[in-house]
Design goal:
By secondary structure, the chain is α/β, with parallel strands linked by helices. It is built from 12 helices and 8 strands. Helix 2 (54-62) crosses helix 12 (233-255).
Length: 258
């Protein structure tokens, strides 16, 4: 696959993308995009990366409000295998997705010299992440609660932004889940002076060992959602039923030009 970043060493926004249901996905690999994020972290400005699954793509197609929330995202990275299949039908020739938990793990293991801030998860999750990735340089964190629109509890909504700007981390990991993390980024991207903001949701719990991830064979075959549904049926059944169905519906409509 051609490197989507090879022609853009001086332009860190315009990269090759392929449209899937109205979302411009970046056809890339773990190593390729990790390297690109390290380049971004050395630049001035703030960049938002969304690890994008079929739910995010479907919500952007289905909800004008959610599309507005995520219009300030700079890079939609395909996190789900169904998206890879869609991209490959358009000539991307990708072998794998860029899965949020795996991407986070690779960056924390390999990004020596870069600094990290954690926003989301519990205190226990944060402590376990720092223990498991002891070579990563964590310089700050907030592990409190937020409401359904991603507003952090108490004074944290204001104080966290101040702390991020004071500490100036290279990577700001947001694990509030969709759509909470999208609301938070929508409100605060313009207030954050620099750094790469990564919306990774479930990645906090997986990498801290708080929740199990699907076996690799299920991941490769696009069945991660089946595993997660089996482990959290009450929380996820309604979500998956709605958005998986809508995703297929919109694909069919697009195919037949409806």
């Amino acid at each position: 696959m051609r490197d989507p970043f090879s022609d853009n060493q001086q332009n860190f926004v315009s990269v090759k993308t392929i449209d899937v249901l109205g979302t411009a996905l970046v056809p890339t690999t773990y190593a390729e995009f990790a390297s690109y994020c390290e380049q971004l972290a050395k630049q001035e400005g703030t960049w938002v990366v969304n690890m994008t699954n079929t739910q995010v793509v479907t919500m952007r197609r289905h909800s004008a409000e959610f599309r507005k929330l995520t219009d300030n995202v700079d890079f939609f990275i395909p996190d789900g295998m169904p998206l890879i299949w869609c991209l490959n039908r358009r000539g991307a020739n990708l072998r794998d997705r860029v899965y949020g938990p795996t991407f986070m793990r690779k960056v924390l293991q390999d990004s020596s010299g870069f600094t990290h801030y954690l926003l989301g998860g519990s205190d226990q999750t944060g402590s376990e992440l720092r223990r498991r990735f002891s070579d990563a340089k964590f310089i700050g964190a907030f592990h409190g609660n937020s409401n359904k629109e991603g507003v952090l509890e108490g004074d944290a909504e204001h104080n966290v932004v101040e702390e991020i700007n004071r500490l100036s981390p290279d990577f700001i990991w947001i694990g509030l889940g969709t759509p909470k993390q999208d609301w938070w980024i929508y409100r605060h991207k313009s207030q954050i002076k620099r750094g790469v903001i990564l919306a990774v949701g479930f990645a906090f719990d997986v990498n801290a060992g708080a929740k199990k991830d699907a076996p690799l064979w299920m991941q490769r075959n696009g069945l991660t959602w089946v595993f997660r549904l089996a482990t959290e049926p009450r929380r996820l059944l309604g979500r998956y039923l709605k958005y998986n169905t809508l995703f297929l519906y919109y694909l069919v409509r697009e195919k037949f030009g409806i």
